[in-house]
Amino acid sequence: MVSNIKCGEIQYAHKIITGDRKTDTQLAGEIPISTRGYSKLKRPGYRQSFKYLPDILKLHRELINSPFPEYLERLFGEYEIARSTNQMTLKNFIEKDIDLLLSFVGSVSQLRNIGIGIDVDKSIEYARLNWLVGFMLADSSSKWGHHDDELAATAREYMQTAVNLLTEHREHLGMFAQYYVDRVEHAIVSSLYNTNEKSILSCKNSRASFIKTLQEKDYFNVIESILEVVPTDHLVVRNSILAGAVTEDIDYISIMLQRLIKLDSRFSDPDYKPTPNTPSFREELIMQPYLNLLFTSKAA
Q1: Helices (H), 114-176
Q2: What is the CB neighbour count within 10 angstroms for residue 154?
Q3: Cβ pair 75, 135 in contact under 8 A
Q4: Closest Cα to residue 210, out of 233, 230, 194?
Q5: pLDDT of 30-69, one tens digit each?
Q6: Distances from the Cα of 32 to the Cαs of 28, 54, 55, 100, in angstroms?
Q7: Domain residue extents for the chain
Q8: Triad 125, 127, 129: Cα angle to 5°
Q9: What is each CA distance from 134 to 131, 164, 218, in whole angstroms?
Q10: What is d(CA 222, CA 187) in angstroms, rounded to the nearest whole number?
Q11: Which is nearest to 4 in space by CA: 31, 55, 50, 38?
């Protein structure tokens, strides 16, 4: 997903700066990569490698002037590539780095707790660290055949710290200030859903509580805000469909599913898994009432 997301951000930044998005051919020439190769990078489920990551991050840095340190952007990129491969690669990546990152985050947190201030740049770096640690812990909490509710709650605490810091220093984040906040808010909602999926399905009060969270976080507008920047982010579109299923909005589900199929026709198959770590729609319990309505070409 890193190439998909970063290339989308680059194209959006070019639109803000010049009034028009770069075409795939123009952007491919700057990475450099063939236009066909660039199109593959943007496809859901394409197994990415580290080959183009340095060039993509360099172009991203030059055009967007990211407020985050270069080492964290590269680490985030490597993490996203690990997420798009397989569970063992992701597990090994997280286990290799998580203790050091937690130690670093804890040290900065202690300074803040005893009243020792840190400057704006360090605060923004700290926000990105909390963002990354939160994402890693959220993945750890819901992968490898079990779900650890306590670890998921800890992940959301780190992500909420990131949201608070990003909001506090919004004026220093550049053209993507709101987008950064939206991406983390989206992940918090995803973690909440993963933690409470069974109760959302079986308990009216739990479902009502989750729907209230969607409303409080203005979740469906957050989705559109993210997709304005990265319209090819299939996982965000996919998650919006699950949220639509929770709210039982069949019209919204249908619209977003067509949007997803337009990105990649393989999503017309309810058994399609965009990444090894992502369930198919048939495997999502919340989608069971809608399979026959939505996927007419393949019986549920």
Answers
A1: 120-142, 149-168
A2: 18
A3: no
A4: 194
A5: 777 677 766 766 665 555 555 666 777 777 777 777 899 8
A6: 6, 11, 7, 34
A7: 1-65
A8: 70
A9: 5, 13, 21
A10: 11
A11: 38
- Maximum Cα–Cα distance for the chain, whole Å? 61
More confident of the two residues 263 and 282: 282
Q: Is the pLDDT of residue 294 over 70?
A: yes
The 8 Å CB, 24+ separation contacts for 241-245 are 241/281, 241/287, 242/193, 242/284, 242/286, 242/287, 243/189, 243/193, 243/214, 243/219, 245/284, 245/286, 245/287, 245/289, 245/290
Q: Report pLDDT digits (tens) over 104-151.
A: 676 556 545 544 456 788 889 989 999 998 988 888 887 655 678 898
Cα angle value 233/170/2 (rounded, 5°): 25
The label of the residue with tokens 């509710």 reads 149
32: how many CB neighbours lie within 10 A of its CB? 12
Place of tokens 């399979």: 291
Nearest residue to 236 (alpha-carbon basis) of 5, 3, 16: 5
What stretches of 115-271 show up as alpha helix (H) in DSSP?
120-142, 149-168, 177-202, 204-216, 219-229, 234-246, 250-263
| Separation of CA 30 from chain center | 25
| Single-letter code of the amino acid located at 255 | I
* DSSP summary character for residue 250: H
SS3 content of the chain, % helix, strand, coil (to 5): 75, 0, 25
1-65: which CATH topology? 434 Repressor (Amino-terminal Domain) (1.10.260)
